[in-house]
Amino acid sequence: MKKSELTVRDAMKFARHDFLNELQLILMHMDLNNVPEARRKLLDATERMRIDSQISGLDMPALETWLLTFDWNYIAFSKVLKTSIVPRKSDRKADDQAIVEVLDDICQQLVNGADPYADCVVNILVTTTGDEWEVSLSLPGQTAPIVWNDVYEKDWTAKLSVDNEYWTFTFRGQ
Q1: Which residues contact 63 (CB under 8 A, 6 or more apart)?
Q2: Could you give phi then psi for residue 151, rounded to 5 degrees?
Q3: How far apart are CA 68 and CA 55, in angstroms?
Q4: Residue 90: CB partners within 8 Å, gap ≥ 6?
Q5: 130's torsion region: left (phi>0), alpha (psi -120 to 50) or beta?
Q6: Closest by CA position to 64, among listed 143, 9, 11
Q7: Pairing between strand 132-140 and 166-173?
Q8: Whether pLDDT at 2 is above 60
Q9: Confidence (pLDDT) at 49
Q10: Strands laid side by side in the 132-140 sheet
Q11: Cα separation of 158 and 102, whole Å?
């Protein structure tokens, strides 16, 4: 089953909700005179926004949207996103809509097999080095099996590696 596409209105609603929650948490710490914790929460929120902003340097709109709306589409998981973006030298060749379709399929299978009582964190690393890009998703190995075959397309690949009970899905290309 394919998830429905978020509208701009939906995305703005979710973004406002998340932002107001963060502000309320900071205000709560300030009211409790816990300035160091309020400051830490403010710096954490600022860093998350900086990272979200860097994603546009990937220059793959469908993949960028998928990354930025991950939390809203896959509520069974929480995301930790890290980036290392170097400006590209030429246009991206990979079809990012096809990449998103593979990512959606993986995540739907993982959601279906996820333990609803476990805190499942997905670590996402986005890197670019001029013309090359890589997106990796790392998470604790799931107990439910998933259907997976490595993908080898003209301008991108997707592979699964399992190490120390962690699954890492790596997408890379030009």
Answers
A1: 96, 99, 100, 103, 135
A2: -110, 130
A3: 8
A4: 131
A5: left
A6: 11
A7: antiparallel
A8: no
A9: 86
A10: 77-84, 120-129, 132-140, 166-173, 156-163, 151-152
A11: 9
Mean pLDDT of the chain: 87
**142 and 110 Cβ atoms separated by less than 8 Å:** yes
Whole-angstrom distance, CA of residue 32 vs CA of residue 41: 14
Work out the burial of residue 138: count CB atoms within 10 Å of its CB; fewer than 13 is exposed, 13-18 middle, 19 or more buried: middle
| Nearest one of 111, 161, 113 to 138, comparing CA atoms | 161
C-alpha closest to that of 113 among 135, 137, 139: 139
Q: Cα–Cα distance between 108 and 8 in angstroms, integer?
A: 22
Distance CA 123, CA 59 (A): 21
Q: How far apart are CA 63 and CA 128, in angstroms?
A: 13
Give the burial class of 63: count Cβ atoms within 10 A of its Cβ; 0-12 exposed, 13-18 middle, 19 or more buried.
buried
Q: Which residue has the higher pLDDT, 94 or 116?
A: 94
Q: Are strands 151-152 and 132-140 parallel, antiparallel or unpaired?
A: unpaired
- Bridge partners for 125 per DSSP: 82, 136
Full-model pTM: 0.83
Where b means 16+ CB within 10 Å and e means fewer, 66-86 reads bbbbbeebbeebebebebebe
